[in-house]
Amino acid sequence: MGASHSIHIANASSKDIYVMASLNPDWAVVDSIADIGVKFLLGAAAGNLATATATALIPGPSSTPPKQIKSLKDIFSCLEAARQLLSHKRAEAGVAMVDSFKRSAIHIPRGEFKNVMEREILGKHLSVDGIASLLSGNAKNVSLVVMSEDGGRVAMWNTNSDHSWVCTDCGEIRRSKYGTIWQVNDKGRKVRWAGN
Fold first, then answer.
1. What is the mean pLDDT of residues 5-17?
2. Which range of residues forms the domain containing residue 184?
């Protein structure tokens, strides 16, 4: 992916958001996180979350998160479980996972946007090898996980490496009109937030 490719995420929601990008949902993104402390926190949070989810009586469908985080898909499963725990007032394990994700993801304050494929932004979280893998010329599609600041909303989807998105409070993340950042493409793809 050369300099001509970028994925801008515009935050038109009422809360700050956090974004993590990877080559695909199964990419071992945790191996590419630069901060060893963050890797440890993610791992510990996942283990505590798996235990808390297994012992919590949460109504409705709920998947058990993995006990170890290896891929972006694992991170999303843990965030979804954390969201469910938080919505049912079982906060401790949920908050630990949300806080761990915040430390390893790209922060986008409300009313701002970022190119989540920019080398300098990725460098705050990923190792040199992780950045090289993600920015390689072969990456035509990228997987994204987005979480609201409080962990109440999460989403995961695959996108073209040259598409931009607008996060809204309307329960959706909307594709931007090509060549713009803030203009929503009314006929474009929509991704549903999981949660409130």
1. 93
2. 8-195
